[in-house]
Amino acid sequence: MSESTKKTLLTLPLKVILTEEGASHFIQNKKKLLRIKLADTIEEYGISLDSFSPQTIQQMILVDYIAKLEISMPEFSSSKQDVMDLTKLVVFSLLYKKFDKEIYAALVESDCVRKHNRANPSQIIDDRVKITDRQVLFHLSSKEGVVSRARKTILDPLWLSIKEDESLTPEEKNVFMLMTEKFLDRMSRLNWYVITKFYDQPGFGEILQRIHSLLRDYMEKSKVAEYISLMVMELALNCENSNMRQEARRMYKGLPDTDTLIYDPEVRKKIIAEMIKKHEMVFLSWRLGGGSSSIGKQGRLQITLYDKDDSFQEVKESIETKKSADLNKRSLIDFYKELPEGSEGVDLGLYYLSYLDEACKKVNVKFESLVNQYSVSNLMVITLVFNF
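Above: the chain's sequence. Below: its structure in token form.
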């Protein structure tokens, strides 16, 4: 459930595809953009990183600069924690964005804001009238003390209820308390503008109630981040092991038990080196809902795993033209159920999937999964879609 790692850097071969806002920002700051080819062979503009600060990536997501992230590796075992941390980072970033948007919608519907709008038609606060950054900054520049008091007013009752909740362990209580702070820390200046404007006014209790209600909802929604990261890693490791077994059979023909070779550290190194040489990679991408212009999609996350080989483009074209395409399309749960009994990872995969599905239903997060399997090239594309 914890948001991410305490690491200052994650070491992964990350491709960052930018939104229009992101590309414009980089160009204005004279940063050179690369034309990057992704797993689906589409080329888009972005940047390429070998290591990166989680905080920087999160900030870029929060300001709508990132459309998609992608990594490609022959094996994920050695970077397991970093991949899981990146997945949780993406999920939490989308939760922060959606929370901020819903807070503003709740604030402008409150009675005290409605009364203000009726009494001050030239200073309306709603979804249609844009309040400039200059207005917001000017207002907040003299309200530092009010912001601090408002934060305390919001957090104190929530923290008390968390501390008194006997169903939570001491560690869970600490996590939840820290999480409430993080959601407030990542709230936009515009929301603090509204909160501080009405903090000492009659009717602020309703605003407080609305904020508390949403904070509780999002604390519950945050539980799915851990399940999503475990599911993604399980899928990546399954693809990794499948590819390694195939390569071991090619490299060590004639040996009776090539499947166990992949667990020998020295042999594993040789197999990985051969897979890198042949460019046999597993690709993992996180497609975010979109920039500020993508109305209604800000809370959408699509995670796609491509078990790719060199004939991917040929197969893609074959499928697109519907010529000689052997396509088996089903849900992820059906995929697991149809695997032969005794297949490695089936029980664990079903376990993670059932918990993820249940966790999403509990907190009203829409979740669907799809597996496309192309036997022509032994290519598999797994897609997980979440709407927060």
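DSSP finds 14 helices and nine strands in the chain.
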